[in-house]
Structures are given as C-alpha cells and as structure tokens.
C-alpha cells in the first residue's frame, strides 16, 4: 500500500478488530494511512489504478473512523476500511481512541 501511494504516504498501521481479535476472528481490516497532504481522493485514485487486489467503495476511505463501510477484498469475506490521517497532525480523537491498538506495518 505504501508503495502504491508513493512518497506522500509516511506510515501505514492496522487497528481495530484485526489487532484486538486477530486476523482470523476480525470482522474487517482497518488501515490507518498517515500522509503528507492527506487526500481521500488521492488514496482512492492510487488504489483504483494499482495492481493491488482491492475492489472498494470510496465511502470506505475517510478522514475519521466510524466503523462500517468497507472495501470488499477479492476472494475473501473481509472488508477494508481506510482512515487517511495527516502524519504531522493526526486526528486527536482517532489517536485517543486507537493509540493503544495501532500496529505499524510500514
């Protein structure tokens, strides 16, 4: 994902049920994308034009996390939710709710 998003993407983390329950028991896969100049449109465009195996609904890419939405993952019943955050100044409420369960993967 980081390679797909280019130099604007600084970090990627999983959070939510994937971290709390493990991938096998998680109901979805929540990804936090920390970027310079965050843009949900940029993320959607880059994912749409990538070779990654994502079939997604742009409503699942947001600046805050409310749960639900989801990106269907081909060949799997898991869904992806993307939260796009400013790497220098991430959303305070998001960080407060998720700090202890953020697992940086890149």
Which SSEs are present, and which pair or pack?
Layout: H1 2-5, E1 9-15, H2 17-21, E2 29-35, H3 40-48, E3 61-62, E4 80-86, H4 92-98, E5 103-104
Parallel strand pairs: 2-4, 3-4
Antiparallel strand pairs: 1-2, 1-5
Question: Describe the biggest sheet?
Answer: 5 strands, mixed
Biggest sheet: strand arrangement? 3-4-2-1-5
Form type: globular
Secondary-structure element string: HEHEHEEHE
- Helicity range of the residues? 10-25%
- Overall SS class: alpha/beta
What is the helix tally? 4
Q: What is the CA-CA span between the terminal residues?
A: 9 Å
Low-confidence runs (pLDDT<50, min 5 residues)?
A: 67-75
Annotation, overall tally of beta strands: 5
What's the oligomerization state?
A: single chain
Mean pLDDT across all residues, rounded? 81
User: Radius of gyration over alpha carbons?
Assistant: 13 Å
Please report which band the strand proportion falls in: under 5%, 5-15%, 15-25%, 25-35%, 35-45% or over 45%.
15-25%
Structure description:
There is one protein chain. With 106 residues, the chain is an alpha/beta fold. 24% of the residues lie in helices and 24% in strands. It contains four helices and five strands, in the order H-E-H-E-H-E-E-H-E. The longest helix has 9 residues, at 40-48. The relative contact order is 0.25. The model is unreliable at 67-75 (pLDDT under 50).
């Amino acid at each position: 994902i980081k390679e797909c998003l280019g130099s604007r993407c600084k970090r990627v983390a999983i959070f939510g049920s994937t971290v709390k329950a493990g991938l096998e028991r998680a109901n979805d896969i929540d990804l936090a994308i920390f970027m310079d100049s965050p843009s949900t449109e940029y993320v959607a465009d880059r994912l749409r034009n990538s070779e990654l195996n994502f079939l997604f609904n742009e409503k699942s890419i947001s600046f805050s996390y409310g749960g639900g939405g989801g990106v269907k993952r081909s060949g799997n019943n898991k869904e992806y939710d993307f939260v796009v955050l400013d790497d220098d100044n991430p959303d305070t409420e998001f960080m407060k709710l998720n700090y202890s369960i953020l697992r940086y993967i890149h």
